[in-house]
Amino acid sequence: MKPDARLTTGPIGRTLLLFSLPVLGSNILQSLNASINSVWVGRYLGEAALTATSNANIILFFLLGVVFGISMANTIMIGQAVGGRDLDEARKIVGTSTTFFVLLSVAASVFGYIFTPDILAAMQTPHDAAPLAVTYLRIIFIALPFMYFYNFVMMTLRGAGDSRTPFYFMLLSAVLDVVLNPLLIFGIGPLPALGIAGSALATLIAQLTSLAAMIALLYRRRHFLLLHREQLALLRPDPAIIRSLVAKGLPMGLQMVVISSSAIVMMSFVNAYGSQTTAAYGVASQLWTYVQMPALAVGASVSSMVAQNVGAGLWHRVTRITRMGMLFNLAMTGALVGLVYLFDRNSLGLFLGTDSVAIGIAQQINLVVLWSFILFGFTIVIFGTVRATGAVMAPLVILFVSMWVIRLPFAWALGKSWGAEAIWWSFPLGSVVSVALAAGYYRFGNWRTSHILPVPPHAPEAVGQAPDTSMGTPCEDAGPVSDADELPPRTVETVR
Hints:
Structural class: mainly alpha
Number of domains: 1
Strand content: under 5%
Radius of gyration: 23 Å
Order of helices and strands: HHHHHHHHHHHHHHHH
Number of helices: 16
Shape: globular
Number of strands: 0
């Protein structure tokens, strides 16, 4: 199976859309799977159990963020290597990243399992939900290495230009999880009723099965990034790649940690208002995952596409990719926001029942928060572009400012007078700040001069560079360059 060149040669709008749709489909399946699990837990095990899973899922998101940066750095490096047609370098990156990723994920799993009760206590998890949350989360920690490696393989394939294969196996995982959830929660035949533990165990079985099937298929197809027996030496970590994974991956991982840790603190604020408010917030958050999915899919696709074009030296396409990503975010996220506003009570009733007091609270949360995800989607697309070049510190700083300097202090300080409303209004405030800072960095920052790996002597040069003032966009070559053109190394002079 050979690499696909469409990310660097195809028409930008159509290529980005076709690459984004399977990523969006994977995100939908993942969130739909979690939502169906929440329906089983909330409708049949009660609000305390739903509160337990809401708290546990915040922790899971935090732990996935710990290694997100490593897998994202791996994705970008592979994208640039594949874009530059250096497949030996791409395989070397895969080998080093695999070893590093496995060791890191196992360490996170062991640490989390041991300290589960302490973590939940620090979040002020309600007493009626705490024992259930401990049981659920500890099983999730056992599954964590498989979840990590599953996401690692999918992001590696996307970096290589393949977003369809991850979608097919996410579909398999989601179907297995949905089928196994009621069977393991309520029991059937010789299987005992496991309650909330059955929901977590279903996730473990589904992801492990899908991971094994995906790896088996890739070997059957002889994927160009797979390591065979004679290439196992590539699993020995390369120091230069390790340094780049840490130097670039750590800030990207910290971006997720900033988001997830602020969500943990926010959850502790919400928990102070009791189980009904926490359940309402948890259910509203389930809908938010769907609203954010188009932007996340487009942002990830923009990042993969920009990485390959940077690797190929096709800088004239980067700005157009970003603009198209912004347009797709506005259209798709805006449409979903409108739909949720139209069918708010009906969608919330799926999780809580139409007579639940928590529905009214969740409706008010959505009224205040939902529209702001359009703005945050713009931020995600801009981050997808700049991090594909290796510029990772500015997005981290922007997220930290918007969430820890603006959002959380606002929610805490005004909570004494506004109550829970201060929490809800902190979301749009943070989104306005983040998109303003991201747009400023995209316009004036030096992200175009960043590199995720040391530049090899044979690397293709960029078609223009940002002016020395770091203001403006890269200058294009004087001659016309079509979207289908690929520039050979060292054939284009830099325009100053």
